[in-house]
């Protein structure tokens, strides 16, 4: 398993939460003090540890047992709790309508498009009515896609860009892909974030997505 090898080599063992996750959790906790969150592809638990330290009821799933073991060890050292499972996010082992928020911090795009579609169907199932998905997905404007040896609309391989060579493949989404992939959600908000050098060279390009499950019981919560 490629990702297990990466974690076993001591790579991608991030310790600090991503700033967008920190901001999102603080905003959502104001509206929902008893927030229940699931992170897809939680890796070594950098976001999980942060959420647990803020008394969020949090769960995480990752394909790598090595990453899950590392995250559990960190939680134990800090006397924190989270439900962590080694498994496939295309088949989520939680009941319907369990979570207020699901977070995907560039984990879904480590799978082919077909598997992403399966995972999003599972996300809708485990979200509560009116629940929110926050997702970060690489754009097809990203230089890692532009310079890859084998580009594909389903799954791109042969990535040569520095910092990405260890990964066996990634999915890069166009604007139309985002609209199609998230079509089962009631509301979709997507922003393309790009980083450009002084020479106007694109350094990175990522979609930031907020999507809401249909709320059958009450009005949809305000956008986060």
SSE topology:
Layout: H1 2-8, H2 19-31, E1 36-40, H3 46-53, E2 57-62, H4 65-77, E3 83-86, E4 99-105, H5 113-126, E5 127-138, H6 143-146, H7 175-181, E6 187-196, E7 202-212
Give an overview of the whole structure.
This protein is of the alpha/beta class and 224 residues long. Helix content is 29%, strand content 25%. The protein has a seven-stranded mixed beta sheet with strand order 3-2-1-4-5-7-6. The radius of gyration is 17 Å and the shape is globular. Mean pLDDT is 91; it is low at 218-224.
Give a quick precis of the structure:
By secondary structure, the protein is of the alpha/beta class. It has 7 helices and 7 strands. About 35% of the residues are buried.
Structural class: alpha/beta
List SSEs in N-to-C order: HHEHEHEEHEHHEE
Q: Name the beta content range.
A: 15-25%
Contiguous helical run count: 7
- The side-by-side strand order for the widest beta sheet comes to 3-2-1-4-5-7-6
Terminal CA distance = 36 Å
Roughly what percent helix?
A: 25-40%
How many strands, what sense, and barrel or not for the largest sheet?
7 strands, mixed
Number of strands: 7
The low-confidence runs, each spanning 5 or more residues with pLDDT under 50, are 218-224
Q: What sort of overall outline do the alpha carbons produce when their principal axes are compared?
A: globular
Mean pLDDT rating: 91
Radius of gyration from the alpha-carbon trace, in angstroms: 17 Å
């Amino acid at each position: 398993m490629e990702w297990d090898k990466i974690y076993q080599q001591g790579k991608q063992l991030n310790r600090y939460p991503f700033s967008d996750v920190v901001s999102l959790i603080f905003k959502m906790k104001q509206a929902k003090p008893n927030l229940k969150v699931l992170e897809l592809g939680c890796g070594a638990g950098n976001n999980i540890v942060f959420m647990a330290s803020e008394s969020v009821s949090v769960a995480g799933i990752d394909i790598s047992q090595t990453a899950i073991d590392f995250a559990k060890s960190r939680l134990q050292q800090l006397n924190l709790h989270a439900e962590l499972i080694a498994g496939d996010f295309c088949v989520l082992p939680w009941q319907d309508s369990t979570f207020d928020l699901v977070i995907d911090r560039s984990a879904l795009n480590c799978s082919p498009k077909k598997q992403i579609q399966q995972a999003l169907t599972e996300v809708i199932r485990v979200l509560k009515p009116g629940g929110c998905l926050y997702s970060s997905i690489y754009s097809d404007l990203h230089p890692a896609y532009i310079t890859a040896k084998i580009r594909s609309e389903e799954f791109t391989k042969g990535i040569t860009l520095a910092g990405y060579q260890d990964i066996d493949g990634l999915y890069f989404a166009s604007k139309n892909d985002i609209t199609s992939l998230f079509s089962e959600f009631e509301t979709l908000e997507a922003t393309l974030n790009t980083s450009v050098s002084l020479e106007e060279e694109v350094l990175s390009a990522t979609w930031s997505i907020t999507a809401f499950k249909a709320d059958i019981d009450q009005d949809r919560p305000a956008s986060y």
